[in-house]
Amino acid sequence: MFCEHCGKEVNPDAEVCLNCGCRIKNSKKQVTTQDDQTANTICIVSLVCTFAGSFIFGILGDLSGLENFFDTLAGFSSLFGFALMVYARITYPNNKFAKVLMWIYIGLIALIVLLVILVIVFGILFFTSLVK
Ligand SMILES: [Zn+2]
Question: Most buried residue, 20, 50, 78, 94, by most Cβ within 10 Å?
Fold first, then answer.
């Protein structure tokens, strides 16, 4: 790879040319930074869809009385957020935000599964106590 400005050979990992100090176009480092920015944006959109989406749709459902409709929208919004995280993880495997986000989602899913199990267990306990 050569510097566009002075024509000297440059290290593609470098951000600037060591000979003239010019920025190296399409250096690996710059591409990585751009990828990181794109991945971070996708991650933020994913978070907004998952959390703000369900929150806003939940409130709208309460206000309008159309809870089923808005609950469905909230579900789709969360699924979309989750899909965006998976997309960011696959497309930008080195992005740190996407990695952190993946663990947040895994933690959330584990928490939901745990809650569902607790509800089922308490439900069974409740019904067996009724039978007696
Ligand atoms: Zn140069």
Answer: 50
Which of 27-31, 43-47, 128-132 has maximum average pLDDT? 43-47
Residue 74: its H or E element: helix 67-91
What are the residue ranges spanned by the domains of the chain? 39-131
- Confidence label for 126 from pLDDT (cuts 50, 70 and 90): very high
Ligand 1 centroid from CA 23, angstroms: 8
- Please list all protein residues whose beta carbon sits less than 5 angstroms from ligand 1, which is an ion: 3, 5-6, 17, 19-20, 22
Rounded to the nearest angstrom, the distance between the alpha carbon of 34 and the centre of ligand 1 is 21
